Amino acid sequence: MMRKGFTGFDKAARADGRNIFFFWDDPSRLPADYKSNIKAMQVQHPDWSVQLADDGIIAGLLARDHPGIAEVYGDIRVPACRSDIARMAMLGAYGGWYLDADMACRDPLDRFGTDHPIVFRRDDTAGMKSRFRTMNGILFMPPGHGLPQRMLDAVTDHIRDRRHLHDVLAFAGPKLLSAVVQEMGLGGREILSVKAHLRGKDPMFQECRGASSFSWRIQQCFGILPVDQPDWDVFPPQLRPEFVPIIKTFVDRHGLQAWLPELALRRPGYLRTAGFEELVRTCGHHAYERPVIGHRQGAATGG
After folding, report:
1. Which of these, 58, 52, 187, 23, lies nearest to 119 by C-alpha position?
2. Are 68 and 40 in contact (CB under 8 A)?
3. Among 44, 71, 47, 56, which residue's Cα sits nearest to residue 9?
């Protein structure tokens, strides 16, 4: 399923674009059902190269093809953001399909052909129908198509200008993809319907999402790259219970525990979510008695 190292990955990729790529930052933590899905894809596509890339492989690919991004790739804190970059790097280098690891196919992908790009438009809700928005969990690019390069050029600009550092969708994700698709004038058979292919009674694609599938929504608030402070305004008004362990893992990994007391002050409703108050306390601060706002310590606020 996954070749060891970038060299093996590079050799296994096909030049004709009959590639199916998946990405997981650390395959040792790949959920069992996702692993089974990738193995099923191999069985379903015996004439395709089916590969799972990890952070190490993508770092090697970026060092060869996109050194400006490679310099900061390891500093990107949000795995979903690294995944957005990884898919474009793979599709730009080799051509083929990219699918999220939780995306299964009803039938082989051969039915779509390999001579034109395929992007899926979000038309599955009333809100999405009113604007042009794509998804990037399923993509096909023929070898040499210019869209992945255009995407990665934009990411390079975002890194240089430090733009969208609290917005995964705009930094390298579906918002950016939507803009690039429109700029390049893709249309017709190149734009397919999410409603037709992912929803309904017998869709071509089916997704099984785990608790961490939308972890980027809370992680991005702390900064995609190292920043002076979070963007407090983008934290959601309410904290979902499943986000508490995600916050703990994230702040522990990146040494951001000192920001949690101020987050509790700015989003006091979070304290009603099971586990968050204890998480703040274990940081060595007390959110009520010693609030820290920026570089200032305040007086006790009471409970």
Report:
1. 187
2. no
3. 56
Angle (CA) 83 280 237, round 5°: 65
Query: Cα separation of 251 and 18, whole Å?
Result: 40
pLDDT at 214: 85
Domain ranges of the chain: 5-207, 235-297
At residue 100's C-alpha, the angle toward residues 97 and 106, to 5°, is 70
204: buried, middle or exposed (CB in 10 Å: 19+, 13-18, 0-12)? middle
160 vs 124, 175, 298, CA distance in Å? Answer: 35, 19, 36
User: DSSP 3-state assignment of 119?
Assistant: strand
CATH 3.90.550.20 fits 5-207, yes or no: yes
pLDDT of residue 48: 98
Helix (H) or strand (E) holding 19: strand 19-23
H/E element, 300:
none
Residues 6 or more apart in contact with residue 145 via CB below 8 angstroms:
91, 95, 117
Cβ proximity of 133 and 235 under 8 Å: no
State the pTM of this model: 0.91
pLDDT band at 213 (very low <50, low <70, confident <90, very high): low
CA distance 169 to 297: 34
Q: How many CB atoms lie within 10 A of CB 181?
A: 23
Give the C-alpha separation, 95 to 144, whole Å: 7
